[in-house]
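R.M. (postdoc): so does anyone remember the format we settled on? I'll just put the structure tokens first.
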């Protein structure tokens, strides 16, 4: 993906959770069918954790849910319940950003790919998702 790198801002519905993330203006977002993502309708792009920063007092409005292997850390706002980002099982060194929670104006293109979270192990082994949370040099 050859797209300029920009600073995106975003957060939850009530704006108690706000963040900024350095990422391309054109992203690959994953539409996952795992039990959690499919129920939430979450479609997300993954960035290196060092490119993601919570703003202000956002951390005091976040709660976390885990299940299964407890590797993924599903975060959401304690006030409005929106999950604007989380730490995915596929990329524990990264952050998955819900593309619909990015403020308008900085995302120029979103390529949506299917992620087979129902068959996670086989999908993960044949995907390139683990590279998404690596800092590009």
């Amino acid at each position: 993906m050859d797209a300029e790198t920009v600073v995106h801002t975003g957060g939850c519905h009530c704006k108690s959770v706000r963040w900024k993330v350095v990422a391309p203006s054109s992203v690959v977002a994953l539409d996952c069918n795992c039990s959690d993502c499919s129920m939430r309708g979450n479609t997300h792009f993954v960035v290196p954790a060092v490119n993601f920063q919570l703003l202000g007092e956002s951390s005091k409005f976040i709660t976390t849910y885990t299940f299964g292997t407890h590797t993924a850390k599903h975060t959401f706002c304690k006030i409005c319940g929106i999950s604007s980002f989380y730490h995915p099982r596929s990329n524990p060194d990264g952050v998955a950003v819900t593309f619909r929670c990015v403020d308008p104006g900085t995302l120029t293109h979103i390529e949506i790919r299917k992620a087979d979270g129902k068959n996670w192990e086989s999908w993960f082994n044949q995907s390139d998702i683990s590279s998404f949370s690596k800092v590009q040099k």
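R.M.: ...and that's the designed sequence above, right after the tokens. Also worth knowing: The mean pLDDT is 87. The first helix runs from residue 35 to 40.
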